[in-house]
Amino acid sequence: MKTNKKTYKKMTEKASPNSPKIKDFILAYVVGGLICIIGQLFLELYTTMGLPEKAVKAAVPVTIIFIAALLTGLRLFDKIAKHAGAGTLVPITGFSNAVVSPAIEFKYEGFVLGLGANMFKIAGPVIVYGTVASVIYGIIYWLMKMF
After folding, report:
1. I need a labelling partner for 10 at 20 to 30 A (CA). Which of 30, 66, 83, 96 fits?
2. What are the domain boundaries of the chain?
3. CA distance 136 to 28
4. CA–CA separation, 89 and 79 (whole Å)
5. What is the mean pLDDT of residues 2-19?
C-alpha cells in the first residue's frame, strides 16, 4: 500500500485527536503559577531564617533547580508535565529537566561519552540562543540609552 501526502495527513489526523486547548491553557497557567508561588514561599522562608538578601537570591533558584532535578530523577517531573504541559516550562524548572533528562538517559554509556557528551543536548541550544538574545537586547538597550 503506497500512501501519498494527503492520505498520510488524514491518517495522522485520525490517529492523533486534537487536545483541549482551553483546558491546556488553564493547567499551564495554574501549574506555572504554583511553581512561582513555591519559589516565593522559599524566598519568604529563607528571608525569615535571617539569610542576607544576596544569599536568598541565590538559594531560591538553587532550591527550585534541585527540586526539579530530583523530580526528574524520580520520574515524577514527566508525569506532572504530561498534565501541566507548558506550565512546567517555567524557565528554571524546564531548564533543570532539560539537563537532567539526557543525563539519566545516557548515563549507561559512561561519564565522558554518555553523560558528559549528551547532558546539554537539549539545554545547549537554550544556552546559546539565550546568550545571543541577551547580547542583542543589551546592544539595543545601550543604543536606546545613547539617544
Report:
1. 83
2. 20-146
3. 29
4. 13
5. 80
